[in-house]
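Homework help board

Subject: predicted structure for assignment chain

Our instructor gave us this sequence and asked us to write out the predicted structure in token form, then describe one feature. I got the tokens but I'm not sure how to describe them. Can anyone check?
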Amino acid sequence: MKPSPKKERQKDFCYTHYLLPAADIHPVFVRFDYNSGRENYNYGQHLHVDHELIYVVNGKYSARLNGEGVALEPDAMLLCCPGDEHTDQVCTGLQYYTLSFHVRSAHGIGHEISLLREEVGVRDKIFNASSGIIRQTMYEVAEIMQDTAPGSSHLAQTLLQEIFWRFVLLIPDKLYSLDFYRLSEPDNFSRRFYKVLEGNPGGVLEVSDIAAELSVSISQLGKLCKLHLNASPGQLLQKFRIERVCEMLAKSNLSVGEISEVLGYKDQFTMSRTFKKQKGIAPLRWRKNAQSDADLEVSDLL
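My token output:
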């Protein structure tokens, strides 16, 4: 039977996008300023303890960053990082926004995370924002911050988050610091999935536990695993548990029965059968081979 026109329209114009959990990065905003040069003046040399994003609206912005001269036209941005030495030269007619912030893990890591690698040069800290979206959002923040209505401060914080992440998208991957790249990659589903497994080294997890940790339904988890990891959650969990079996066989003196108990298997026979199916060899034989390989490596060193 031919499907109804309504169903065809739904198929043509609707799609589903399963949202991944948010990144582990938590920007903390310290200060937001609108600067309008009414006369010429200089800010003396100062050392940045936070990140500061400078967005030029009108006029020409001149500065020295780490001893190197910088000149910015409208819709250009300069990122000053913690530890940078900075001097501003402000001229009449210059208008620019500054946003100061520091970056931490959403899980409360105490030290500040740098957006960029330490070795990044001054020229790579200049960015173009010609689309005007960041400028418009900064303008909205400046307007909202003058409002005392309930919720205005929360809306301003939300818009500052938008500015931050839109700016992050302008940064080439090669410039990110390793800490920032590692913590912002959680948009990568596979990293988040295995982070949950590694957070439960005993492997005593059910698929429902993983779904709860990732804040998705079991059916969504299945679709995401198929899409990003080309396997079902159950298959991935089983493979992870077998790798834990291998690790414990190689690095501990626990018996097969003790290992199966630690890892939450029903009994050692269930574990052995699953292990042989994946590895093509019984657990004890695998342990003997692993020990032989280790002995050979030691003898080669001697």
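Reply (TA_rk): Your tokens look well-formed. For the description, you could write something like this. Residues 1-11, 297-302 have pLDDT under 50 and may be disordered. That's the kind of observation they're looking for.
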